Amino acid sequence: MRxxxxxxxxxxxxxxSNSNQENKPVADPPFWNDVQHFKMQDSISPPPKNAILLIGxxxxxxxxxxxxxxxxxxxxxxxxxxSTLLDQIRYADVIIFPYQPKQIVIYCGENDLAxxxxxxxxxxxxxxxxxxxxxxTKTKAPIMYISMKPxxxxxxxxxxxxxxxxxxxLFLGESDVLSSITSKNVYIDVHQKMLNEAAEPIxxxxxxxxxxxxxxxxxxxQESMKPYLIK
Length: 231
Prior knowledge:
The protein is an alpha/beta fold.
């Protein structure tokens, strides 16, 4: 009898343990709340189709007045701060395709490199290629990639940034040759334009955090991007 009592207690404990595991809340993936906020915004005020879509990390998130920099263009900004290319891949179905954009502008990759010393330039390039292929499954909208900027606080990553920037530029050039897209993909090199004659980041175009830009920095981006935006 005692033997069967032990068996009963053991089974009951196991069931309780499994029940606790089943009831344990599953953590949301990174930036889940940011993406849900976009969905809520869109439900309240549906954005126009056939606009220029910005996706990427905090350099876009903090560009709150981006529309003012490009009068005559319709801009949808869906950058979310701290995000990586893996995050753009994870949420592509939410932050890209519902908008049916005529052009997609990407600024991302810097946080990938900063996230871990084990992340290499080729890894970032592979992630960009994955995102590119995902985009191409549903749209032929031309893609503009803004090169990773030389943030002063990330000097230790400059060599990796340059290597990844160059490889992404080459990839976009090759993808144009192989595609039937009328409007070409574009690589925008802002990295060099944000350096002074000593090849150092221009200090007065960055905020005090030495990572994000002020209006002077965004003016460089405006000048670099505008000739290639599609009306």
